[in-house]
Amino acid sequence: MSWLRALKETARSGLEIERQRLEPLIAFRGAAGLALVVGTSLVLFGPEIAASSAFGAFQAAIATFQRSWRPRPVLALVSGASLAVSTFVGYVSASHPVLFLCLLGAWTFLAGLAWAAGPTGGIIASSNVAIMLVTITLPTSVVDAAAHAGMILVGGVVQAALIVLFPVRRWGAQRDALADALAAEADYARRLRHDPVAPFDPLPLMTARSAAAVTPRQARRRPAELHGARGIAERLRPVLASLADPAMGVPAEGLERAWVNELLGAAGSVLDAAARAVRHGEPVHLSATDLGVLKTPDNDVILVGPALRAADRLAALLDDVLEIAEGTGTDSGVPEHLAPDTRHRPTLLRLVPVVIKAMRRELHHGSPILRHAIRVAVVAVCGYFVGEAMPLGHGYWAPMTAVMVMRPEFSQTYGRSVARFGGTLVGIGLATAIVQTAHPDARLSALLSVVCAGLMYLLMRTGYAVSQVCVTAYVVFLLGMAGDDWSQTVTERIVLTLVGGLLAMIAYALYPAWETPRLRNRLAEWLVADGRYAATVVDQYAAPAHRDLEEVRDALIATREARVAWQEALATAQHEPVRHRGISRAAATDAQHALAQLGRSAMVLEAHLPPASADPVPGAAQLAEALRRATEKGAKAVRERRLPDWQPVVDAVAHWDVPTPSEDGTTPVGDPVVRRGAALLLEALEEFTRALDERGGSTRVSSTLAEN
Fold first, then answer.
1. Beta bridge partner(s), residue 214
2. Rg of the chain's alpha carbons, rounded to an integer?
C-alpha cells in the first residue's frame, strides 16, 4: 500500500462515526461523580483545586469504560491513585527543567511499556502522563501540589464509591462475553447446515475465557449462570463440527444428512435462547419443537456410529448449558481457594510482578512495544521543547496531544492524530461560541465542563473524533474555571494540537514497527501451534489409558492464540504503507485457510477421542511424532521463505495402507476415524504448501490418500 492511500484510509477511519449501543445510566453516573467532586471542591477550596479534582474524577470514570474484566471500582481507584502520584512527582520536579525532562522521558517510557500488560493498562498509563502535563501547571507550591494530588485521589475514590453504591448491570461485561460465545456457537451450528466445513472464529470463545478468570473475592460473588457455561460452549464446537463433517459424520446427502441438519438447527435455537438468558439474567425460553428434535428416540434409529455418539453428546452438553443459563448450576466454589475448573486472576498486588515480567519480555529490538515506548518518550520530550519554544503559551498541549494519540501500531496512531485535530477544531469552536455568548463565570464553567464530560462518556464508543470534541470543550471550560485566558484558547490549542499530532506521525514514520515483515513469523508460529495440537490429539489415540485431556486443552488454547495473533497481524499489515515483503495477500489468505483446516481436522479427531478402556491405535504414536517434527521444520522453512516438506507425515499415514498380516490372519489397517482424520491433516498441510508456492508449483500429493 502506498503512503498516500494509507494516509487516506487512516484519516477516514479516524473520522469515522459508528452506531453503537449507548449506556446512558453509566454515563450519567460518571458525570454525577464528576459534578459532585467539582461542586464540592469549588465551594470549599476554590477553582484551581476544583480543576485538579475534576481531572481525577474525569480520568477515573474514563478508566471504568475500558475493556477490562476487573471490578470497575478497582479501575477507578487505580486510575485516581496513579494520576495523583504522577501529578505530585511532576510538580516537585517541574521547577528543575533538566530533572523534569528526565522524569517526563522515563515516565512516558514506562507508560509505553505498560502496553505489554494489555490495552487497558497502556491507555490508563498514557492518559496519566498526558493529564499530568496539565495538572502540574495549577499548583503554586509543594503544599498546594500535595493538596491537588490528594483531591485527584479523592476524585477517583468518589467514582469508585458511586459504582459500588449505584451499580449498573453487575457482571455486565462478563455476561456479554459469555452470551457472545454462546451466540457464536449458535451461528456456527446454523452455518454448518449449509456448509458442513464452515469456518469458525474462536475470538468470542477466547474473550469469554479471559472474562471467566476471577479473583477469590469475585468467585464468591459470581452469579451461578456465569460459572461453567464457557467450558461447555468450548466443548460444543468439536461436537458440532464432527456431527456435520461428511468425512467423519454422515453422508453429504440423504436421510441422515437431513436429520443432522435438523439437529444443528435445534442446537442453534437452544444456544441462542441460552445466550439471551445469560445476557439479560432472565429465564430461558425454549421451543418445544427444538427440545423434541434433540430428545427424540429417532436419533438411535437414523444415526449410527460416530454420528450417533456426537448427537448424544450434543444433547447432553445442551442440557448442561440450559441448566447453567437457568441459574440452577452449582458454583463449585470458593472461599479461599478457587475450584479446579475456575480460571484464576491475580489480585492487584500479585499482578505487579506479572506486569514487570511482561515488560521485561518486551525489552528486545524487534518488540513493537519497546519501539512504541521509545517513540512516545522521545516525542513527549521533543514536544515539550517545541511547545515551550513557541510564543503561544500552554506549551504542554503539544506533548499531551502526542502522548494521547500514539499507539503501538501505525493505523491507530495516524487515525487518532487526524481525529484529535478534527475533534479539537470542532470542540474549540463550540466552546468559544458558548463563551462569547454566555460569558460564564467559574460556576457556570464548571457546569459546562460536567455536561461536556457527560456527553463524552455517553458517546465515547461512537468514535475517537466525537469523544475529542467533548474532551476539548471539557478542558477549555475547566481551565477557564481555573482562570485560563479565553482569548488565547483558540489559536494555541489548534496550533499545538497540530504540532503534537504531526510529531506523533513523523516519529512513527522515522522509527516504525511494521507488522508486514513479521507476517511469515506469525504464520510459522500458527503452524507450530496447529502441529502440536494435532500431535497431542493423535497421541491420545496411541495411549488411551494414559490420556491427558488437560494437555489437549492447553494445545488447543495455544493454537487459538496463535491464530488470533496472525489475524490481528494480517489486519494491521493491510493498512501499512509497506511494499510486499515475504508473502503476498493472496498467499496469506490461502495459507490462513489451510491452517484453519488443519486445526479443524485436529478438532474433529478430538471430538472422537476413545475412552480410557479402548485399545491403543497402532501407528498413532509415529504419526503424532511425525506431525510434531514436520511442522516445526516446516515453520523454519516458512521463516526462511522455503516450501515445507511433509514427507515424514506422508510416510506415517501411508503406513496404514501397507498390508500387515496379524496372528489371526486378518489385515489391520488402523482405526478408521484416525485414518480418515490423518488423511485430512495431510491434505491441509499440502494445501498450506501449495498456498506458499507463489510460483505456481505444486507439492507431492498422495493419490492413495486423496482417494480415501
1. 344
2. 29
What pLDDT score does 25 carry?
92
Residues 6+ apart with CB under 8 A from 578: 1, 514, 516, 517
C-alpha 413/C-alpha 577 separation (Å) is 13
3-class DSSP string for 233-294: HHHHHHHHHHHHCCCCCCCCCCHHHHHHHHHHHHHHHHHHHHHHHHHHCCCCCCCHHHHHHH
Q: Which of 243, 211, 249, 229 is nearest to 318 (CA)?
A: 229
Distances (CA, A) of 379 to 10, 235, 372, 591: 20, 48, 10, 39
Q: Which of 317, 302, 296 lies closest to 189 in space, CA to CA?
A: 317
At 344 the three-state DSSP class reads strand
E-strand ranges in 27-66 read none
Across residues 364-393, what is the average pLDDT?
A: 90
User: Do 527 and 592 touch, CB atoms closer than 8 A?
Assistant: no
C-beta separation of 440 from 434 below 8 A: yes
pTM as predicted: 0.85
Which of 484, 496, 501 has its CA nearest to residue 396? 496
Judged against a pLDDT cut of 60, whether residue 335 lies above it is answered with no
Task: Give 540-609 as a 3 state SS string.
Answer: HHHCHHHCCHHHHHHHHHHHHHHHHHHHHHHHHHCCCCCCCCCCCHHHHHHHHHHHHHHHHHHHHHHHCC
Q: pLDDT tens for residues 643-683?
A: 999 999 998 888 776 555 554 544 445 677 888 888 899 99
Contact 619, 655 (CB under 8 A): yes
**Candidate from 396-400, 475-479, 664-668, 704-708 with smallest mean pLDDT:** 704-708
Nearest to 375 by CA among 528, 491, 481, 511: 511
Of 154, 47, 35, the C-alpha closest to 441 is: 47
Residue 344's φ and ψ, nearest 5 degrees, are -95, 135
pLDDT of residue 220: 80
Average pLDDT over residues 537-565: 89
Cα–Cα distance between 557 and 561 in angstroms, integer?
Answer: 6
Distance CA 691, CA 584 (A): 10
Helix (H, G, I), strand (E, B) or coil at 214: strand
Give the cell for residue 108. 512516558
* Architecture of the 516-707 domain: Up-down Bundle (1.20)
Check pLDDT > 50 for residue 701.
no
How many other CB atoms sit within 10 Å of the CB of residue 23? 18
In three-state secondary structure terms, 476 is: helix
The residues spanned by each domain of the chain are 24-167+367-510, 172-325, 516-707
Average pLDDT, the chain: 85
Residue 242, class by beta-carbon neighbours within 10 Å (0-12 exposed, 13-18 middle, 19+ buried)? buried
Length of the chain: 708
Which DSSP letter does residue 115 get? Answer: G
CA–CA separation, 180 and 275 (whole Å): 7
**Cβ neighbourhood burial of 12 (10 Å; 0-12, 13-18, 19+):** exposed
| Alpha carbon separation from 689 to 166, 533, 638, 645 (Å, rounded) | 57, 19, 9, 8
Q: Indicate the pLDDT class of residue 452, thresholds 50, 70 and 90.
A: very high
